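Backbone-to-sequence.
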């Protein structure tokens, strides 16, 4: 396992890539409404990515058939967009999107409310998002990779939510998935020492119920085993000798 350190030039390209993806997410978030199909979300996402000069990196990745992952309610991640899946008031929907710009990948996810949702659903979304920010407090030079994992775990655990274990964050750069893997739950080892110039996709996936997930027969969609709601929040970040830089936020 070796974790790449990006040069100043590469970091600039990662910023350019991330900025475009942040724009895509902002526009998708504004577009989400009851009555929209998950395929329409994908079509809009692909159009936005291309209009900003990016190339969708999920499209055809290991055979994935779309540009955006659209995961509704108990779907954890990698939901395949469909013309027949219509978002309805009260749903929560996780959008995972990524793009390549001048050879550099970015990857980010947000969970949105569709119209009015229950306070319980909103709390799950808020805790999941906050767990990312708690986690990246540990993402700085000299800390260790699993300090991030432990910080996410310590924040989420008191809420009684299930932290997904089967899917993890990852390094990112000239490939969508680079070393290292970044678990969202506490580890026995410290993991690699973090260094300035590492770029990481930190992505907690949190279930309202148990942590267990199943994979649907479509070969992609992960769902909660107990049918509980699930939320996802992800950004591509740059490790520095101080605060991490979040590359996929405006
Ligand atoms: N953001 C997703 C991840 O890191 C990438 C999904 S690739 C796809 O797991 F092919 F599933 F879309
Ligand atoms: Co990712």
């Amino acid at each position: 396992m070796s974790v790449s350190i990006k040069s100043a030039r590469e970091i600039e390209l990662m910023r350019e890539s991330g900025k475009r993806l942040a724009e895509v997410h902002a526009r998708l978030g504004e577009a989400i409404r009851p009555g929209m199909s998950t395929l329409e979300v994908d079509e809009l996402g692909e159009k936005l990515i291309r209009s900003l000069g990016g190339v969708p990196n999920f499209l055809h990745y290991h055979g994935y058939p779309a540009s955006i992952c659209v995961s509704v309610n108990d779907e954890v991640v990698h939901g395949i967009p469909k013309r027949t899946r219509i978002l309805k008031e009260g749903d929560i929907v996780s959008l995972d999107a990524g793009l390549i710009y001048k050879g550099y990948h970015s990857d980010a996810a947000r969970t949105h409310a569709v119209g009015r949702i229950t306070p319980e659903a909103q709390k799950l979304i808020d805790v999941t998002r906050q767990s990312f920010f708690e986690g990246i407090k540990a993402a700085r030079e000299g800390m260790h990779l699993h300090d991030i994992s432990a910080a996410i775990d310590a924040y989420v655990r008191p809420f009684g939510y299930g932290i997904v274990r089967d899917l993890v964050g990852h390094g990112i750069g000239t490939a969508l998935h680079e070393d290292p893997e970044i678990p969202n739950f506490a580890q026995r080892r410290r993991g690699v020492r973090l260094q300035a110039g590492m770029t990481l996709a930190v992505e907690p996936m949190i279930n309202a119920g148990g942590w267990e997930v199943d994979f649907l027969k479509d070969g992609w969609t992960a769902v909660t085993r107990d049918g509980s709601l699930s939320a996802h929040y992800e950004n591509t970040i740059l490790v520095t000798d101080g605060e991490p830089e979040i590359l996929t936020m405006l």
